[in-house]
Structure formats: C-alpha cells, structure tokens
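Example complex used in Figure S2.
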Amino acid sequence: MAKQRVPEAARGAAGDSRLEGEAALLAGLRAGRDEAYEELVRTHAGRMLAVARRLLGDGEDARDAVQEAFVSAFRSIDRFAGGARLSTWLHRIVVNAALMKLRTRRRKPEEPLDDLLPAFLADGHRSEPRGPWQPASALERSEVRALVRRSIERLPESYRTVLLLRDIEELDTAEVAERLGVGPGVVKTRLHRARQALRGLLDPELLATAAGAGRTGAGAP
Amino acid sequence: MSGERLTCREFIDFIMSWLDGELEPAVRRSFAEHLEMCPDCVDYLDSYERTVALGKAAWDAPGDAEVPDEVPEELVQAVLAARRRA
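Predicted assembly (307 residues):
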C-alpha cells in the first residue's frame, strides 16, 4: 500500500522540531563536527544493528556490517540530498552492507523448501488441509512474535533474505531484484514460496486445534 | 460469466498475485469462485495473509524486539574509531 504523505500543516510541532533537529545534525556532519558524528551513531546504530542482525544473525558480521555502513555513510554524507530522512538513507546503506557480507560468506548447502510447502493430490486438492488458525487477537503475544522470528531464521537463506527485504525491510520488488542481482520474477517466486514455507512452519503451532495445547503458550495470560 | 475452474494448487499459486492486484480479470473471477466453494482454501488464504502480517509485526513491539534499548558502547566506539582512520 502506498505510504501517505502527511500534510505540512498537520505534521505538528513534534514533526517540525524533529526536522529542524535533523537539519542541524546534517549541517554538523557536513562541517565535520565530531559531536555530530557521535550523535548520528548513537541515534541510529541500534536500529541499524537490528536490521543487520535480521539478515546476518547475531554475530560479529552484523556489527561489522553496521560499522562498514557508517563508514560508507560518512564518506558520502555530502551526497545525501536531504530529501529523504536520514534514517531511511542509513537503512538502505546498512541493508547493502549486510547483503555484501552475505555474498562473501561461504554458502552452506540449502535445505529443500518442499517439505514446508503445501502438498497436493493428483487432482490438485490439498492432501492434508488442517483447518483454521486461532483468532488474530490470540496471536498478538510476545511468544508468537518470538516464534515467528525463530521460524524466519529456519528458512533457507535465499528465501529468508527475500522475505526479510520485501516484507520486513519493505524494499520493493525492483529494489530487491537489483540488490540480489536476479530478475523481478525470481524475487516474486521466492517471496511467495518463502511466505508459504513460513506459513507451513507456523501452522502446527497456530492452528485453532493447537490452542490450549501449550505449544506456544496459547491461552497463557 | 464464469471463469475456468481452478484447482487448490492453482488457487494457492495465484494468492500473492491476487493480494497484489495483479491477476487478469478472468483469473480473478476463477479465484473468487474457488474461494466461494472451497473452505480449505479460505483457511489457507487467511493463514497466508496472517503469516505476512505476523512477519511484519515480529520485530515491531517494543520490549521484545531486537532493537537494543542502548546501543553497545563498544560498537559506537568502533564506528567512531573507524571514522578517524578513514
């Protein structure tokens, strides 16, 4: 869905002061002031580390990617147009740094995804339909969010990366295709299969018939 | 006018394109007709859409998300040192 622009008049004092703060920070960065660089790092490193950890896991690589992203940002600060938010610009840079790291890692052989995809009978019907999931309100719990994060981590890397970039980091299909060096059709196919596989991993835990079975703490307060 | 009948396999193949509004009108009609008559695919579509929503929300909530409340000081210092070297 297209993001709505907030009209200038409706943005309010908080938004105005944030923009002013960002303009002042940018001026400090362009003037090479140490305290501006430190403020930039302290303000944005946490969020950037979270992005890198999603793509690379919770290890040295994620920290290295953040460090490399900042160095790249410092080098190109004069080219930052100022039309976008600094956070959006830094987000793109850390995504690129993390993808660069992924490319240089030794590729592990990927587990086939087929076991997590729906199975069909010869006539095209699903072989094991399982029934509805628990109501949405029952899934708004921290243990379900943790289950989803663990399940995403279990996806084979080429599928997990596309799912993270499209659904969580919210890059569009063309951006993901460009960054991964594949065609838009490949991105769409991988995303659909990754979503189906994630659904397959969540299914046994989130079925209405699993509620109360204690698998994800369903029914817990 | 009714479209060609879809199997459950074809229905599931088309879900993402349907959600993105990218199906041709004839396929969209067949998709809607299948949805009318197949409760298993109603469940599947619902769980697919909720999978996408759960993925988007998995890192959203403060408190249990992966965004550290405080940035590791060691990382801040490493970044600032890298700038001095650059």
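Residues 8-85 of chain B form one domain. Chain B has four helices and no strands.
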